[in-house]
Design goal:
Helices cover about 40% and strands about 20% of the residues. It is of the alpha+beta class. Helix 9 (about 340-360) crosses helix 10, helix 9 runs parallel beside helix 12 (about 390-395) and helix 20 (about 580-600) packs across helix 21. The longest helix is centred in the middle third of the chain and has 24 residues, at about 340-360. It is elongated and about 110 Å long. It binds adenosine-5'-diphosphate and magnesium ion (MG).
Length: about 625
């Protein structure tokens, strides 16, 4: 027998369970039954994959047994089981991404209700058994390995030993804590209590769940085993959907939205999909899985079926049950199957249409949805050109119109000024940098609204999506911003001539830093700003590519001067009268540095900038 220590995060979670203030302790049984049901699914799948596997699958089921005298409760399945490595890796450690953040949040939340909420959101699976038991014994055997016995009181360590007699599958025995109604600890050895919990949480599980009779007689099957998606929509209650959602998603919250599709005809299928209320912590991690399971004729075939849902809708959970596929269907076949492709198109359209309806009918829920998943959905603007207009239609964006409320593009277009031709936006790291950026000045002066785009994905889609409802997207930090009337334009041309000498000289002087110096139409109060050419990478994008390890050339930008600003007109006068342009070159450099700082950028040589500035200040005293 070997005694091993829990990984430290696991230990902290266990402590939390042992001293749990979580009032809904019944959920431990749901977690055990859910794991058992998953294990049966996995075994079934394994026998399709490996025809030589010797294992009895004639009576796959979950059995629950109680011993009132010894106060034990056992949940047994004859599913896939676990190897010794599995037991140590899966039960002794928590691989769930976001655990560290979760524990940190929990530590910081002082109030009990808030921590209950957090526990609920995180979901704790197997460890929830320690809310009701002071010792847990797990006996398990994988079809290709020896049996293992695992035991723990949840206090820092567990034991593992060989168990040659362990039958196929897994049994988990809880040595129950004493009944304590005040602490929400009912008698979990009472058959009525168990039946009630299973009916409430696991009725839809398609495997039989049997409760052993106390007198040693025939066990009774206590779940109805009806697949929810196969029942008429009018008969299924919201609670039943919510429980099923929890089972497929491993999320303890209710779903934000439930979507059903019944497709009849040559290729028949049913889909039951859910939009979660909250984004999982790993939504933007690369190894993250997709949430749709594939069933064929009620039989579970695979998890994480990426052929059914595109990457940008990876947060959608649920089940698709196809009637006309072979049970042996493989990923390779799915990828090439035309029917599957048609089905996927329909599922995607339905999900997007559901969001559109939600936006119209339940704006609060829509706002919640977009806050959680908008950044993922926007990836579809790049990857799903077929649905691009639909995605633009359901998207919302922060804007200068309202500091709190995001706007739809339709809302933006409606508010456009009579003389305004483009949808203006600016990308950047944060709302604050964008709002303080000099690029906004002239637009603000004209009363034009600007979209404030701060998600990393925004940098990408704005280059790929040309327009919305015929209005082109225009970055206010790129290219020439054309805001003027005819009159203003000819005045600008005049000024361009007046400044020609200065601009040419500055372009040469600052050649290491910028590719051009020109006059600006976007500034009213600042002397200068730096902008990109229409097709250049933005500085943020440049940084992002470097962070991903890609080689990108440094992009030189354009320095724009405000011809109305005293500093700029003064510089011109000095330039024209100067014999020695040396000191002026330093002023030009300072002007460039200030423009970089104003947009929250990094100076090429901060020490030199500070020295030039201090020299100039001294001279002015
Ligand atoms: P989750 O189910 O969300 O993965 P759990 O804490 O409930 O988290 O379970 C952790 C892992 O332990 C499962 O993913 C599974 O691999 C394994 N496991 C738990 N119970 C069983 C079981 N009855 N049979 C086989 N494997 C199991
Ligand atoms: Mg589980």
């Amino acid at each position: 027998m070997e005694t091993l220590a829990f990984q430290s995060e696991a230990r902290q979670l266990l402590q939390l369970m042992i001293h749990s203030i979580y009032s809904n302790k019944d959920t431990f049984l749901r977690e055990l039954v859910s794991n058992a049901s998953d294990a049966l699914d996995k075994l079934k799948l394994e026998t399709y994959r490996d025809k030589d596997l010797v294992v009895d699958t004639s009576d796959l089921h979950v059995a629950i047994e109680v011993d009132r005298e010894r106060r034990t409760l056992t949940v047994r399945d004859n599913g896939i089981g676990m190897t010794r490595e599995d037991v140590i890796g899966l039960i002794g450690t928590i691989a769930k991404s976001g655990t560290a953040e979760f524990l940190q949040q929990l530590k910081e939340s002082k109030d009990a209700a808030a921590s209950q909420d957090l526990i609920g959101q995180f979901g704790i699976g197997f460890y929830s058994t320690f809310m009701v038991a002071d010792k847990v014994t797990l006996l398990t055997r994988h079809p290709r390995a020896e049996g293992v016995r695992w035991e723990s009181a949840g206090e820092g360590t567990y034991t593992v030993e060989d168990a040659p007699d362990a039958p196929q599958g897994t049994s988990v025995t809880l040595h129950l804590k004493p009944v304590d109604e005040e602490d929400h600890l009912p008698d979990y050895t009472a058959p009525a209590k168990i039946t009630e919990i299973v009916k409430r949480y696991a009725d839809f599980i398609t495997w039989p769940i049997r409760l052993a009779a106390e007198d040693g007689g025939e066990p009774t099957t206590i779940n109805s085993r009806k697949a929810l998606w196969a029942r008429p929509a009018s008969e299924v209650t919201e609670d039943e959907y919510a429980e099923f959602y929890r089972h497929v998603s491993h999320d303890w919250n209710k779903p934000l939205e439930t979507i059903r599709i019944q497709a009849e005809g040559a290729f028949e299928y049913q889909a039951l999909l859910f939009l979660p209320e909250q984004a999982p912590m790993d939504l933007f991690m690369r190894e993250r899985k997709r949430g749709v399971q594939l069933y064929v004729k009620r039989v579970f075939i695979m998890d994480d079926c990426e052929e059914l849902m595109p990457e940008y809708l990876r947060f959608v959970k649920g089940v698709v049950d196809a009637q006309d596929l072979s049970l042996n269907v493989s990923r390779e076949i799915l990828q090439q199957d035309r029917q599957i492709q048609l089905m996927r198109r329909r599922l995607v359209k339905k999900v997007l249409a559901t969001v559109r309806t939600m936006a119209a009918d339940r704006p609060e829920d829509y706002r919640k949805f977009w806050r959680e998943f908008g950044a993922a959905v926007k990836e579809g603007l790049l990857s799903d050109t077929e649905n691009r207009d639909t995605i633009l239609g359901i998207a919302s964006f922060a804007s200068t119109h309202d500091a709190e409320e995001p706007t739809t593009l339709a809302g933006y277009v409606e508010r456009m000024k009579d003389d305004q031709r483009h949808i203006y936006y600016m990308t950047g790291d944060s709302r604050a940098t964008i709002e303080h950026s000099p690029h906004l000045e002239a637009l603000r002066a004209k009363g034009y609204e600007v979209l404030v785009l701060t998600d990393p994905i925004d940098e990408m889609w704005v280059d790929a999506v040309p327009s919305f409802q015929g209005k082109e997207f225009q970055s206010i930090a790129k290219g020439q911003v054309d805001l003027g009337t005819e009159e203003e334009k000819s005045a600008a041309e005049e000024r361009e001539k007046e400044f020609a000498g200065l601009l040419e000289w500055m372009t040469t002087t600052l050649a290491d830093h910028v590719k051009q110096v020109r006059l600006s139409t976007r500034l009213t109060t600042s002397p200068a700003c730096v902008v990109g050419d229409s097709f250049d990478l933005t500085p943020t994008l440049e940084k992002m590519y470097r962070a991903m390890g890609q080689e990108v050339p440094h992009v030189k930008r354009i320095l724009e001067l405000n011809p109305e600003h005293p500093l700029v007109t003064g510089l011109r006068t000095a330039f024209e009268g100067a014999e020695d342009r040396g000191p002026l070159a330093e002023t030009a450099e300072l002007l460039h540095g200030m423009a970089v700082l104003a947009e929250g950028g990094d100076l090429p040589d901060p020490a030199r900038f500070a020295r030039l500035l201090s020299d100039q200040l001294q001279r002015s005293l």
